[in-house]
Amino acid sequence: MIMGIGTRRGVTEPEVLDAVAAALSEAGIQPENIELLASSTLKENEAGLLSAAKTLGKEIRFLPDDVINKYEPESESEASRFGLKGVAEPAALALSKCRQLVFKKKVYGRVTIAIAK
Predict the structure, then answer these.
(1) Which of 16, 26, 40, 81 fits a disulfide with 52 by CB distance 3.0 to 4.6 angstroms?
(2) 3-state SS of the chain: helix, strand, coil percent to 5?
(3) Which parts of the sequence belong to the CobE/GbiG C-terminal domain (predicted)?
(4) How many domains does the chain have?
(5) Residues near 4 by Cβ (< 8 Å), separated by ≥ 6?
(6) Contact, 71 vs 85, CB < 8 A?
(7) What confidence tens digit (pLDDT) does each residue in 47-74 have?
(8) pTM score, whole prediction
C-alpha cells in the first residue's frame, strides 16, 4: 500500500508522525503494510516530512504536477491554488498497483493522509 501525504508549509516531524499513526490506526493498517510514502514535488524540501519518513524507515517519492494531475481525487483539495487536483489522494493512487483508495484523505492538523492499494 502507498501512503499519500500532503502538508502545510513548515510542518514538523512530530505532526507528520502523529498523523501517520492516527491514519494507520483508523484504517486498521499495520505500518509494515505501507510500502512507501508519496507526495508532491512542492513538498520535497519540507524538513519535517523528510525527517518523519526517515524515522518511519520509509522511502518517500515526490511526484511532479503532471503525474499528480492525472488522477482525480475523491475529495476536494486546497491544492488547487497551486494548480494541483490534490496531493495525498492523487499521489497515493499514482504509485499504487490497484489504483484504489482504501483510506480517503483525512486532515490531521497540518497533515493530510490518504492510502491506496
Answers:
(1) 16
(2) 40, 25, 35
(3) 2-116
(4) 1
(5) 37, 38, 39, 87, 88, 89, 90, 91, 92, 93, 105, 113, 114, 115, 116
(6) yes
(7) 999 999 999 999 999 999 999 999 877 7
(8) 0.94
